[in-house]
Amino acid sequence: MTIEPATAVHPARIRLERLAKRYPGAALDAVTGIDLEIDPGEFVCVVGASGCGKSTLLRILAGFESATAGTAIVGAARITRPGPDRGVVFQDYGLFPWLTVAENIAYGPRQARIPRAQTRTRTDEALAAVGLTRVRDSFPHQLSGGMQQRVAIARVLANRPAVLLMDEPFGALDALTRTTMQAELERLHRDTGVTVVLITHSVEEAVYLADRVVVMVGGVAHGSPGRIREIVPVTLPRRRDTSTPEFNECERRIDALIHDGGS
Ligand code: ADP
Ligand code: MG
Fold first, then answer.
1. Which of 111, 138, 151, 234 gives the lowest tally of CB atoms within 10 Å of its CB?
2. Where are the alpha helices (DSSP H) in 112-244?
3. Ordered structural domains, the chain, with CATH
4. 27 lines ligand 1 (CB under 6 A)
């Protein structure tokens, strides 16, 4: 029997070139001219005002939505549909309420016809990775919001994704739980080396987590297509202290990029 180490992901590179998306019937592109290359194992956060096209970008990466111009590549392949190489986590946990925690996590590998023993190993490892071994036989409704979101993360980890795509994953959680989840996600990223693209409203969350922060501006509601204004590298040493002047300086800089008109 092959034992897969918990770290057995093969992080993928993401390449977006001149990417644009116009929804049917819309007068403007929701996003336009998106050029972005993300290294394997990199942690990228996307910030920007509501409506600037963050979710559109993520849904294209996930394969739920197709671009109307340009190219989107993950690993060696063009994105044409959803796939187990890209795990997606949304704000609402999307768990199956009639399955236990362990069954929710095993669902993906079972769908992919991974042999039973390996599915069990993966499930156990994913449970351990998010600290939920104790509640493996509980049902989602018996868990707190933070725990449910851990299940959602474990569920995609069990597919051994090359890329983790997260859209406001902690948006529904209280502040304290959110802080805990951020630290756990940072540890998970360090342990697995998976490539992460995370959308957030919180600039603090972005500066805490990201290697680079993609700042988007514009948006159909503001009369212009959403686009990348700037990509800000965050070079602060990891396990970042949100209270240092350097951290705050970085936050202020990104806030200014989001809010000062987007020219
Ligand atoms: P964000 O996530 O940054 O708030 P979205 O990507 O959700 O932005 O939306 C960007 C723009 O595209 C908005 O103007 C929104 O109304 C529009 N939009 C999003 N989804 C659809 C859709 N399925 N059909 C038509 N327009 C959409
Ligand atoms: Mg959104």
1. 111
2. 116-129, 145-157, 175-192, 203-209
3. 1-13+24-85+161-263 (3.40.50.300), 95-160 (no CATH)
4. no
